[in-house]
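Reopening: structure tokens for the adenosine monophosphate complex, inputs below.
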Amino acid sequence: MAKNYNIPRGTADILPAEIGRWRQIEDEARRVFGVYGFSEIRTPLFEETELFARSMGQTSDVVQKQMLNLAAQNPNQPGVELSGLSLRPEGTAAVVRSYIQNNLDRKESRTKLFYLGAMFRGERPQKGRLRQFHQIGAEVIGPQTTSPYLDAEMIALSLEILRNCGVANPKLKLNSLGTPEDKENSSKQLRERLQPAIVELCEDCQSRFERNIFRVLDCKKKTCNAVVDKLQLGYAHLSEESRQYFEAVKTALVSLGVDFEESPRLVRGLDYYTHTVFEISSSSLGSQDALGAGGRYNNLVRDLGGSAVDAVGFALGIERIILATEGQAGISPANLEAFIVALDENTMKKAFVLSQLLRQNGVSADISYRWNSALKNQLNQANKLGAKRVLILGPDELAKNAITIKDMNSGEQQVVSLDQVVSHLKK
Ligand code: AMP
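Re-run output (same inputs, fresh job):
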């Protein structure tokens, strides 16, 4: 017996019945980005592994555990080296790589880019967590882009997309990590304060203590939570300047009527963040409740070899938006305008040419190739396809160079000259 092939674990087919909802979300994101003055960018699905390691941080969970690397060599083509390449786990690194490589900094002082597309992480699949998932993301990069207003605008923009996609009560958590020096200080302080409690931390956090201490703060495990609770985290580690910046972001959010919760525990797992970080979640999702996240990353462009320009960005998960708004109908696919039925072999030849003529003129059309099956069956097929009209071409019609058009709603029929069919249907 032939083998059945299954879809790889952690991936999903997006079936025609679901496409309407996907299109609705993607179209809405594109519309809102347009209103905010963003342009689309499309980068490859894979990049040098080193790019991700350098940008997200060698010690981040994604780089340590979730990178999907391409096979070292294609055995059928020994010359084709694929080593050192990985499927992209997120969008920012590639957008920054492209910004630098294409000298976008020389073209404009502020570059506003958005992307939509598949991302890949070797995670343990569960509801809301896939190995191939899709993000809607945006980045603003440029020399004069450090502004608390811009941070607030990016947050408002992500919330607007989510709300317009039907997310009822998105919850916003906000934090500031400060400058790289502030981060250095707070990591030192954290290490000192957590050292006595290290044995109480979960195994993962014990290793995070060594390699990425900030990650201990947002561990979901109860025991780690209790340890972090006792730290009573605040903003003492921030410099005066960073504190003022954070205050200004909050004031700008208030001016836009955006509710938020301050969360000193929100650290995000990636090295590149500085100052503002945020996460948006929904209570209608289960344990994987994050809809999206983002923040400011002022040193990444320089760290990846570009000029010293600042940047801020975010990414939203499309599958999570769909889960959080389950039950909301997508746009229904456009109904077929015309379904063509021929009644014999001879008229079939003419009907076939007509189907192409209609499509070329922008009239959605399909045809029954089964001219020898009963008219009733063919009308049933038209019904299943949701056709608005059935165009029947039999020998009588053909003799008059005409066609019968049946309106599937009213049942009315009329005979129209073949030369006028296109203009008749376009009316
Ligand atoms: P991150 O880059 O991890 O902050 O992800 C940003 C958003 O992408 C998250 O808030 C999720 O909505 C979505 N996301 C991240 N990882 C996954 C995954 N493995 N499966 C589905 N969605 C994901």
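The first helix runs from residue 16 to 35. The pocket of adenosine monophosphate is lined by residues 90, 121, 123, 128-130, 133, 135, 290-293, 315, 317, 319-320 (CB under 6 Å). Marking as resolved unless the reporter disagrees.
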